[in-house]
Batch of 2 targets.
Target 1
Amino acid sequence: MLNPRYADLPVYPFDRLRQLLAPHDPPDGLEPISLAVGDPTFPPPEAIRQTMTEKAELWGRYPATDGTADFRDAAAGWLRRRYNLADEAVDPERHVLPVVGTREGLSLVANLVVPPEKGGGRPLVVMPNPCFHAYMGAAVFAGAKQRLLPATRETGFMPDLGQMSDADWDRCALFYLCSPGNPQGGIASMALLTDAVLRARRHDAALVVDECYAEIYGRRPPAGALEACAALDGDFRNVLVFHSLSKRSSAPGMRSGFVAGDPDLIARYRMLRNFIGAQMPHPALYASARLWRDDSDAFHHRTAYQKLINLAEEIIGERYGFYRPAGGFFLWLDVGDGEKAALALWEKAGIRVLPGAYLGQTDTHGNNPGDRFIRVALVHDKETIEAALRRVVKVL
Ligand SMILES: Cc1ncc(COP(=O)(O)O)c(C=O)c1O
């Protein structure tokens, strides 16, 4: 009755956290604060409310899988601006497709690109370890074997592509890269992205780069995979990038993102989504287009996250291997035993954080590179984050 692959799913990280904390109470008299979920809490842009009202009659019409020309044009325009791409480099009609939140889009893409066999064996879906959990679920349901590449301090918080043999690259059907990375906050250099594009092409794999935190960064805007393609030969072959309004515009509830890249993969992905994907409703398409055309919210949120990271640096100092994430809004703190620390923070301070192990997986040597860590999401106003971090350092 049940797809046997279901049994191979790891426990969902936030269910695991609930199971860990449920038997324990936070201390009396302290308001619990969650730093566990990366759920931005800045108010969503006013443009959403306005557009939803203006376009309300469109709730009565089925949307198309490829959205509207307005949406595709806005997304393509943003890609050109953000990554200095030439006008002709991004064709909104061939290179861009909306997705209803990138989590679903990132997972579903595995159904498109993972064959039953590749390179003489069971195909590999390669991902950083630890990583955003959607990639794990995607690999399991595509029937692939997961290949984990450590993304640790030693590797610059990005996977080391040279760790994989040519034989493994031949078996690789899908390579997930995440930059800026969740949870570690590392960013992929142009050299890494270029290397990944070339390897994906050489071994006929799909390189899927999750760039959802592309607008949340410190000193420099992180390079993007399409930028790497443009610098190489202008061809997006084998490459897809995912972008989201959840972090950029602090609008995770709208479930709005897009995928861009290889026109052949985009055409086939559109067909797949025609059969099994959700479409973005018209009012959300119009509101999203407005947001992709306006960079002021992204600037505002980026600045606000940097201030929270400054505050964290002030409070935490050099403890727990603190470093400023190059991108994103998570702290990745080395506390020795992440699960034990998460439980202590809950019981003694009413603070929820995610044990790093829940975003990692145990490798063939029996190591989970997330074991020693907790992930701390800086997603509240300054006062709340300050109060929360003061409690964290008191307990740890
Ligand atoms: C790395 C990464 N990718 C993708 C997503 C999914 O974002 P959304 O589905 O809201 O677009 C998240 C959300 O937390 C994330 O952290």
Target 2
Amino acid sequence: MPTCPNCSSEKTVKNGHIHHGKQRFKCHECGRQFVENPQKIVIDQDKRELIDRLLLEKISLAGIARAAQVSERWLQTGS
Ligand SMILES: [Zn+2]
């Protein structure tokens, strides 16, 4: 089970699904409902290779993010 994004408790339980079929969880400690990794972005291999090439060109992260249509955060953290 994922930890609660609100109180970091590990006492979370499955609590149905949201509209796209993602698993929803509820925290037993604080009652918060949340979806695990709601912003999870799947980047396919072609796009990763494109991004690797763009990074070598010393283009700004903002420019790469726009060109490859990924978030700057993903470029920085990979998630
Ligand atoms: Zn909690």
